[in-house]
User: Which sequence fits this backbone?
């Protein structure tokens, strides 16, 4: 056992660090620093730079556009991205539907869809949840009926993240109403510009427009856009969920979050001392930091298992549970740290009087971020569902 | 999440800030795998619940034959010592995996005291005393007890009232050490004492390795709640030779802190074994216990509690691995890593232990089932070498300055 990078890995670390420093878009940095919402173009500007470099999909097999990096190199890469506070790339194409397509798709489907995912030309969204199918996803009712070379799709999806920007969506639809819940589902790729697709915004607690309802009314989808066999879509869905959970620990980003809290707590005053000298607040930071170390080393053990030939298994549910809890605790502490200045609400509030600022900059998004981050223990299979998965798949009960 | 594959054991070379160091190899060597398998098989044969109960109930409170077998038949006591001293050339990782296996059977062997603490101090100081005593440890002829705690000192290693006064070439010891695990079995005592200074001053603390039968040592022996034997040890004008001093006179605190850190990680490794058994024992029980016409393992509220136990056990293993690999870093980083580990593992031991008893129901609080005995050891581990609160506070002092 050892805890050290090899000289080659250190050289790689230097290489990616330099690349990020030299290529990360300046204007994106200022949008982030000022706490504004990121536009579609903001996200895509960084995506396109990485795509051009060939580093957009490190986890993909080389033949489909991956980098061929080792698990350690990928780990270094994600650490460096987080350390430089880079915006994330959208997961829907790169981490979700992409791996499903190169694993289950036909050669024609791979040729049609993978290049657009890599380049960023196609923005993807995920049509899974429905108003009546949340944690019980397999009870979904959106229906696809065969009509010649097409399916005719009717139904409603919800919580569809960033669908307002999407060119394509991957949808779970019911193709056999008589089969048992999980056996009559197919996996369809739907062009979001197809007549009958309607996207309506859902505004969340921080005032953000992240998620949407997607209505499907007599939407005609070519049969050629079905991935894998008819009624076998659940196989793709399960595969995708396992992939979605890896990396969900978000250790590198949370480390940066903890550092931000420490910096806020050294700035904020609590009577005649900095907040970080308050023993109660200090203890909460220590607990958070120690729990994050436990998560980090659990992920590293899990990665070592993967490197030794074990795929992402049900233990990744542990990473999802602990990772999401820690993300929430970070936002909780940030809000607690800013005190009074958690209250002002800046969304839609005009630019203006810089001479009389409203609280410190770091306070502006503390409450909205706290509200928004309640999602992490709910999405991707709620933490209660993750516990069910561990109980069944790991403990065998 | 098993560690597989075979790699060379490498010592950590530290040359950068702590947060830049990252694991890149979690595999065990062939020798380490062999040590674990051999020990695990031996303990399965010798340390079942009934045999353990008989040892504890015997006059000496142990089966001395087990220790001899660990030394002479298995070569286990040499695993963490160098080949020059007759060992297998290992170190912290070997101590950790042996402690984890001992934890799985809640063994009452004095491995922690003799090998990790006594052996650790001797390895650190080297020289003639190490050359003389380490081979005797490996051979199973020496048992060391660590006499460091005092009634007023709590977890502060420098808060020592026991004195060692210079007397010719030697010293004279006076004082009282509390709850000295394994003292009734010991051939040697590893003693902390003040050769100067007072209170909790860092300077003036010294470490001695002395013959346990020296005139003037008075012991009051008793069993502990977790199955060991321990003593109150009183030193009444105990004359000891000058070469009993380990390291430099008055400058022993860094050495003491180091071996206690090593021992702290070792009990965390033991806790990994203990809590893994608390968890698997609870699962097994929940599968066969029927209520309301079905096994209680079908109840979701119990399933989720057992998942939470699983997560605590896994995170304890992660933290123990982390801290084991950081034991040779500079003192401040080592201490932060060890405190992070112990804080987390202490809480895990409490949660897993309490949850195991709760899930068992009434039978869990009887002496009849092994589960309660694992709970008792887990409970003592919580505060051994410092409670969670103690270690959170030390972590904060080291990493969260204003």
Assistant:
């Amino acid at each position: 056992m050892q805890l050290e990078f090899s000289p080659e890995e250190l050289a790689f670390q230097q290489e990616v660090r330099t690349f990020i420093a030299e290529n990360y878009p300046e204007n994106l940095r200022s949008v982030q620093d000022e706490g504004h919402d990121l536009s579609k173009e903001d996200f895509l500007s960084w995506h396109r730079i990485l795509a051009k470099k060939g580093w957009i999909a490190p986890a993909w097999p080389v033949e489909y556009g991956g980098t061929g990096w080792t698990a350690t190199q990928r780990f270094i890469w994600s650490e460096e991205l987080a350390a430089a506070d880079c915006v994330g790339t959208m997961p829907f194409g790169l981490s979700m539907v992409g791996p499903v397509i190169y694993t289950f798709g036909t050669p024609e489907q791979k040729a049609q869809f993978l290049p657009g995912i890599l380049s960023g030309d196609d923005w993807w969204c995920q049509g899974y949840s429905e108003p009546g199918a949340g944690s019980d996803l397999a009870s979904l009712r959106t229906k696809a009926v065969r009509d010649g070379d097409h399916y005719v799709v009717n139904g409603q999806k919800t919580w569809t993240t960033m669908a307002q920007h999407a060119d394509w969506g991957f949808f779970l639809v019911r193709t056999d109403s008589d089969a048992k819940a999980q056996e009559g589902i197919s996996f369809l790729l739907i062009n979001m510009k197809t007549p009958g697709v309607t996207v309506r915004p859902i505004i969340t607690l921080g005032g953000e427009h992240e998620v949407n309802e997607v209505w499907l009314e007599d939407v005609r989808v070519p049969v050629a856009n079905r991935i894998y066999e008819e009624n076998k879509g659940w196989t793709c869905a399960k595969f995708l969920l396992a992939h979605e959970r890896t990396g969900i620990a978000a250790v590198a980003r949370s480390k940066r979050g903890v550092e931000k809290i420490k910096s806020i707590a050294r700035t904020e005053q609590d009577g005649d001392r900095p907040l970080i000298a308050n023993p109660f607040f200090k203890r909460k930071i220590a607990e958070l930091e120690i729990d994050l170390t436990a998560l980090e080393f659990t992920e590293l053990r899990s990665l070592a298992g993967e490197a030794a030939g074990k795929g992402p298994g049900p233990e990744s549910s542990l990473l999802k549970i602990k990772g999401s809890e820690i993300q929430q605790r970070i936002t909780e502490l940030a809000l607690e740290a800013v005190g009074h200045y958690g209250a002002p609400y800046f969304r839609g509030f005009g630019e203006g009087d810089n001479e009389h600022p409203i609280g410190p900059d770091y306070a502006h998004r503390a409450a909205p971020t706290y509200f928004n981050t309640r999602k992490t223990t709910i999405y991707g299979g709620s933490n209660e569902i993750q516990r069910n998965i561990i109980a069944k798949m790991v403990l065998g009960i | 999440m098993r560690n597989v594959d075979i790699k060379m054991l490498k010592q950590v070379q530290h040359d950068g800030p702590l947060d830049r160091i990252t694991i890149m190899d979690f595999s065990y060597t062939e020798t380490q795998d062999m040590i674990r398998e051999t020990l695990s098989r031996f303990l399965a044969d010798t340390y079942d619940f009934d045999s353990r109960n008989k040892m504890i109930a015997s006059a000496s409170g142990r089966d001395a034959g087990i220790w001899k077998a660990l030394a002479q038949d298995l070569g286990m006591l040499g695993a963490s010592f160098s080949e020059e001293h007759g060992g297998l050339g290992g170190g912290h990782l070997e101590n950790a995996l042996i402690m984890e296996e001992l934890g799985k059977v809640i063994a009452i062997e004095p491995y922690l005291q003799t090998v990790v603490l006594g052996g650790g101090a001797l390895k650190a100081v080297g020289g003639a005393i190490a050359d003389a005593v380490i081979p005797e440890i490996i051979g199973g002829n020496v048992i060391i007890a660590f006499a460091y705690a005092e009634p007023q000192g709590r977890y502060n290693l420098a808060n020592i009232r026991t004195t060692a006064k210079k007397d010719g070439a030697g010293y004279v010891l006076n004082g009282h050490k509390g709850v000295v695990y394994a003292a009734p079995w010991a051939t040697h005592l590893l003693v902390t004492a003040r050769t100067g200074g007072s209170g909790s001053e860092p300077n003036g603390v010294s470490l001695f390795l002395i013959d346990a039968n020296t005139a003037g040592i008075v012991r009051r022996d008793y069993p502990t709640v977790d199955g060991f034997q321990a003593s109150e040890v009183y030193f009444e004008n105990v004359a000891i030779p000058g070469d009993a001093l380990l390291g430099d006179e008055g400058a022993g605190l860094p050495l003491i802190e180091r071996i206690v850190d090593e021992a702290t990680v070792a009990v965390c490794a033991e806790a990994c074994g203990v809590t893994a058994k608390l968890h698997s024992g609870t699962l097994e029980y929940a599968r066969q216990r029927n209520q309301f016409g079905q096994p209680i393992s079908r109840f979701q509220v119990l399933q989720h509690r057992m998942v939470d136990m699983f997560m605590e056990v896994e995170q304890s293993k992660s933290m123990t691995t982390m801290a084991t690999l950081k034991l040779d870093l500079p003192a401040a980083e080592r201490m932060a890593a060890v405190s992070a580990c112990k804080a987390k593992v202490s809480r895990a031991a409490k949660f897993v232990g309490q949850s195991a008893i709760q899930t068992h129901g009434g039978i869990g609080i009887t002496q009849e089932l092994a589960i309660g005995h694992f709970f008792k050891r887990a409970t003592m581990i919580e505060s051994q070498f410092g409670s969670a609160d103690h270690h959170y506070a030390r972590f904060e002092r080291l990493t969260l300055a204003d």
Observations:
- Residues 253-288 of chain B form the longest helix (36 residues).
